[in-house]
């Protein structure tokens, strides 16, 4: 059969690969959804319609036991896996095209573990898993269909975007994610193939995952003041987002992988478990915290909550866990945007707290992903807001990108003399 397919004209093989990839990524999205709900059911009980209630009704002891046991299992799993195999990121899979192939079973097991720890309450994102498995499918399909090297890299990137689209139902934002973060050229051919794969995966996963926005909130409209608010939030929130991005990047680069993981990772999970006995708000990928704020429910000591949430993300990644930072970044942006808006209103402004949360999330996502278009469209997709709201969101996101570049240059100029002095010494 393969020999017959390989006789097809190259454009047909490429289209066949894209459609097969969309189907495969849609199935991956459904599988991640099933696994997440299964783990949550086992860990916390049956009320899956509301994650906050599920955490709350489980009780402090059950939350403690779920997180404590998860920490032990995760530490043993990743220690044993990394003794035998080097886990490959999406960009590493792209760079290895023609030189080596990731091991399917081990990469899938690694992805499943990421979803499982989030389901059990770990403070990291689940989006890494569907992206990585989608990329894996893209790589294998393109090799099987004997595509050119550049198109094999494209299929891997398309798989990452399609996996993200399937699990979060944000196909347009996922397409922009591929173009802005994975080094794919903005040609009409590439854009078309990326859109096909993302929208097909989204469509296939929709009956199970659902097409409702991930976060529920009232529909907003912008005013003239929204643009001033966007500039204010970009100015204040961007340094916070840059700090979080720097910490999580450093954590991932220096992640514990040796035997030390067997005790440091369980300690971090136990610390989170102890806090979660009385404060389940710190559990999960930030969805609970963001939804409470978007529902206009107050959170006492919100600045401390945001600091501790970001700290738990860092500690988990630094001490051996794997997971995404997309949804934690969204939650931290929501919280930071709300805080800045409340403070500004006390100083005499009349800004909308709801608009402030969305603008803060757009700034935070655009900065941490280094993808302003993706950040703004993810906020729209996650919250189901009208397209016109993209105007202030894009202003906030692009202003944050401009400011982050300036701050990066200032930091480099400040650090360069210090590095030169160290070399002389």
Secondary structure elements and their pairing?
Blueprint (H helix, E strand, L loop, with lengths): L1 H5 L3 H35 L6 H8 L1 H25 L5 H6 L8 H16 L8 H17 L4 H20 L2 H11 L6 H22 L14 H30 L7 H18 L8 H8 L7 H17 L7 H21 L6 H17 L2 H12 L6 H35 L1
Please explain how this structure is put together:
With 425 residues, this protein is an all-alpha fold. It has 18 helices and no strands. It has helices at 2-6, 10-44, 51-58, 60-84, 90-95, 104-119, 128-144, 149-168, 171-181, 188-209, 224-253, 261-278, 287-294, 302-318, 326-346, 353-369, 372-383, 390-424. Helix 15 (326-346) packs across helix 16 and helix 16 (353-369) packs across helix 17. The longest helix has 35 residues, at 10-44. It is globular and about 70 Å long.
The total of helices stands at 18
Low-confidence spans: none
Radius of gyration: 22 Å
Strand content: under 5%
Helix-strand sequence: HHHHHHHHHHHHHHHHHH
Mean pLDDT across the residues is 91
Estimated structural class? mainly alpha
* Helix content class: over 70%
Summarize the structure.
By secondary structure, the chain is mainly α. The chain has 18 helices and no strands. The relative contact order is 0.13.
């Amino acid at each position: 059969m393969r020999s017959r397919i390989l006789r097809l004209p190259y454009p047909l093989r490429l289209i066949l690969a894209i459609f097969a990839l969309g189907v495969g990524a849609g199935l991956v999205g459904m599988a991640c959804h099933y696994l997440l709900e299964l783990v949550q059911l086992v860990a916390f009980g049956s009320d899956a319609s509301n994650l906050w209630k599920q955490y709350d009704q489980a009780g402090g002891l059950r939350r403690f036991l779920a997180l404590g046991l998860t920490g032990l299992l995760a530490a043993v799993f990743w220690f044993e896996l990394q003794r035998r195999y080097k886990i490959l990121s999406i960009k590493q899979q792209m760079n290895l095209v023609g030189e080596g192939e990731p091991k399917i079973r081990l990469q899938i097991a690694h992805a499943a573990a990421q979803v499982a720890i989030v389901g059990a309450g770990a403070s990291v994102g689940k989006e890494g898993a569907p992206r990585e498995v989608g990329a894996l499918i893209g790589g294998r399909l393109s090799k099987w269909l004997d595509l050119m090297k550049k198109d094999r890299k494209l299929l891997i990137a398309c798989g990452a975007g399609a996996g993200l689209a399937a699990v979060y139902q944000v196909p347009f934002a996922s397409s922009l994610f591929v173009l802005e973060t994975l080094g794919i050229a903005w040609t009409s051919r590439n854009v078309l193939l990326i859109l096909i794969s993302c929208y097909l995966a989204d469509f296939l996963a929709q009956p199970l995952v659902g097409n409702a926005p991930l976060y529920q909130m009232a529909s907003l409209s912008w005013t003239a003041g929204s643009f001033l608010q966007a500039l204010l939030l970009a100015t204040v929130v961007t340094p916070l987002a840059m700090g979080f991005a720097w910490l999580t990047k450093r954590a991932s680069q220096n992640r514990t992988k040796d035997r030390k993981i067997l005790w440091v990772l369980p300690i971090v999970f136990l610390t989170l478990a102890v806090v979660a006995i009385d404060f389940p708000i710190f559990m999960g990928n930030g969805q609970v915290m963001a939804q409470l704020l978007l529902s206009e429910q107050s959170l006492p000591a919100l600045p401390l909550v945001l600091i501790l949430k970001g700290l738990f993300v860092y500690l988990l990644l630094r001490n051996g866990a794997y997971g995404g930072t997309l949804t934690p970044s969204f939650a931290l942006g929501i919280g930071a945007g709300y805080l800045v808006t409340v403070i500004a209103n006390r100083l005499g402004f009349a800004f909308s707290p709801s608009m402030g949360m969305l603008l803060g999330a757009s700034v935070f996502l655009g900065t941490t992903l280094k993808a302003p278009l993706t950040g703004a469209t993810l906020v729209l997709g996650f919250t189901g807001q009208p397209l016109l709201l993209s105007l202030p969101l894009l202003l906030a996101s692009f202003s944050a990108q401009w400011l982050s570049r300036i701050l990066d240059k200032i930091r480099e100029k400040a650090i360069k003399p210090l590095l030169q002095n160290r070399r002389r010494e």
